[in-house]
Amino acid sequence: MMSKKVLIITGDAVEALEVYYPYYRLLEEGHDVTIAAPKKKKLHTVVHDFADWDTYVEKQAYLIDAHASFAEIDPTEYDALVIPGGRAPEYIRLDENVQRIVRHFFEANKPIAAICHASLIFETMPEVLKGRSLTAYIACKPGVEALGATYVSDRTVHVDGNLVSAHAWPDLPAFMREFLRLLQ
């Protein structure tokens, strides 16, 4: 497989496994991977897990370097996009550069991987999902449907054209397998 340039967009409070697993899996395949965030800095990751609660609990996890800021990113230089979940999508979606970057990947029909709460980013640009189908963390279902998209609930990983989506970190092996197929 030919090496591709892949962009990961995220920020503080990204789900640790959802950024680390794709990052290292893509490096393992020989791809050039850039992690972009609001600022070039060390990002704080988190672990969301169920601990006998009705919803998830959050714990601090590892640090990971953001190689570039969103403002520095020229999306035309990248072949594919990964959007991890956690709480990061909730606030990075407000960054106009994130919207510029994400729109480019949809308009250019380049591979996009979105997992867990990543669908929150699409709420600031509803036109990108109109008539599409995807899956996400179940709490994101109302937002996905409000965008005019179909929420897929009968499987944890879903592919709709250039978009691979998944429920959460337990789905990472199948999620990355489908994303790597799109990269070929």
TrEMBL record:
Gene3D superfamilies noted in UniProt: 3.40.50.880
GO function term, MF aspect, one: peptidase activity
Pfam families on file: DJ-1_PfpI
Keywords: Hydrolase, Protease
InterPro entries per the UniProt record, alphabetical: C56_PfpI-like, Class_I_gatase-like, DJ-1/PfpI
Keyword Protease: yes
Any single biological process term in GO: proteolysis
Hydrolase is among the record's keywords: yes
Residue ranges constituting the DJ-1/PfpI domain according to the UniProt record: 4-181
Family assignment from sequence similarity: Belongs to the peptidase C56 family.
Stored PANTHER family: DJ-1 PROTEIN, DJ-1_THIJ_PFPI FAMILY PROTEIN
Name listed for the protein in its UniProt record: Protease
